[in-house]
Amino acid sequence: MSIRILLQTTLLSTKEDDWTIARFQLLSDYLTSLTDERGNSLCQVTARDRQPDAQGNDPVLSDLDRQDFDELWLFALDVGGGLSDRDLTGIARFHQRGGGILATRDHQDMGISMCGLDNIGCFHYFHTQQIDPDESRCRSDDCYTTYISWPNYHSGRNGDYQTIQPVEPLHDLLKNPASPTGTIQFFPAHPHEGGIGVPANAKHARVIATGKSQVTGREFNLAVAAERVDGSGRVVAQSTFHHFVDYNWDISKGCPSFVDEPPGEGMQKEPQALADIQCYVKNLALWLTPTNDQ
Exposed e or buried b for every residue in 42-65, given b needs 16+ CB within 10 A? Predict the structure, then answer.
């Protein structure tokens, strides 16, 4: 049976000039193209933005534990109000019954609605809530886009790639048999990635990959992986949604009009960079599956 994946943003479907789900088409297409060893489709993908009803609840998210999905890939792109209380409850119940979750956002307070998701949003640090306990990190890293504040780690230009550092022991998510090193070496870069980490009481989770700021040289966390606890699903927290969006895989796909940083061409010039992020996406789909016992 195919892995049933929901790609979901917290943006309203009416926001066309934004990072809506339409800008994740390459991700959706790649997941849909995957096949198993018998040639059968590996993933069945549903991609959507938030569509709240008259009470402000999204009909899919608020009832997610009763929906026919195995995984939720949540792109939290709001700066507040992106998830109603009922949405949060539906997602939490989905996780509790074993649903796998990828939770990602971006700089400063983007995705702050995830603070209401126990055991999921706890891996994300923001500017005004759930602040990084390391006070030395509560300062701007990206000095170029001055209207964006911390956390905002500068891993490179949109359209470029960054070299990642796997954290030992090497996690299954970072294995790539087709790579010269046998590991994933590259993620798409972004001028201002968000902050993630592992709370002291989350013994089932660990940082699996780090990056390095191109401005300050500071190391920062790129991905956190959390194992199942008491029947709940696995969770991956990612520092930025830009690792998955069309523009960062292929700058010719364009971006919203408010993006004013000059792009790079690294992803176009280094085929291994695209191959690596695609391998990571496949690894995510397999690892987050409730029935996978890796």
Answer: bbbbebebbebeeeebbebbbbbb
Q: Is the pTM of this model over 0.85?
A: yes
Beta-bridged to residue 219, according to DSSP, are 212
End-to-end CA distance of the chain: 18
Per-residue pLDDT in tens (0 to 9) along the chain, 294 residues = 899 999 999 999 888 899 999 999 999 999 999 999 899 999 999 999 999 999 999 999 999 999 999 999 999 999 999 999 999 999 999 999 999 999 999 999 999 999 999 999 999 999 999 999 999 999 999 999 999 999 999 999 999 999 999 999 999 999 999 999 999 999 999 999 999 999 999 999 999 999 999 999 999 999 999 999 999 999 999 999 999 999 999 999 999 999 999 999 999 999 999 999 999 999 999 999 996 444
